[in-house]
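Researcher: We're teaching a course module on how sequence relates to structure. For the next exercise, students receive a sequence and then see the predicted structure as tokens, so they can try to spot secondary structure elements on their own. Here is the exercise chain.
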Amino acid sequence: MQAELTSHFDSKIGELQSTLITMNGSISVLSEQVSMMEQRISENQDNLTNIETRVTFLEKENSYLRDKVDDLENRSRSSNLRFLRIPERAEGRDMVEFIQRLIPRLLGADNFPVPPVIERAHRSPTTSRPNAKNGPRPILVKFLNVQDKMKILRLSRDKGDLLFDGVQVYIYPDYSAALLERRRLFDPIKIKLREKNIQYSLRYPASLRISIDGKFTSFRCPKDAEVFLRSLPNGAS
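Model: And here is the predicted structure for the students to work with:
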């Protein structure tokens, strides 16, 4: 009887030992797989960090290149002006001749004994037909000399209202769409400055210069200008 029990226990112990050996082998395999997965995860994390660093670099480079292209575009427009609200077909068949006659008419013939030299002039292209709702298309004018452009811009600002056949027209610099949007962000603060009779100027490319008691402060960010305006005591001008 004792021999049978011993044999039975030896058999069971052998089975357990065999099972343990199998389990140890499985655990070793799992351990190796876990180690490999941890290594791969570590490598993926390193790769992800490298990719994030690369993306950050590319975003900065892309932003720099966009700014550079926009700057070059605006430099190419440095001799240009936009004439707004000139009725369609008022120019007849020769836009250049029309503009050369229009400028002395708007700004005074005495200021232009010799007509400014215009390289080209045309209506701004559009995909839709001009109508009363959209208003007439702007006229883009490129001058041969930037001095003529600056003179016309200065006289138009000094004179104020410019009338052509009873219609108020406007003359503005010709900026890229991106720069124009940056400058428009200052419109709300400009309204508040005018309400408070505070002198200001919007300088190229897009900075607001405020004059308080003869002291100038410049802002490239509209929010900073808002904070500055709120900090002023009442009656500042």
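Model: If you want an answer key for the exercise: The helical segments are 2-76, 95-107, 146-159, 177-184, 187-195, 222-231. Residues 180-231 form a domain with the Rec A Protein; domain 2 fold (CATH 3.30.250.20).
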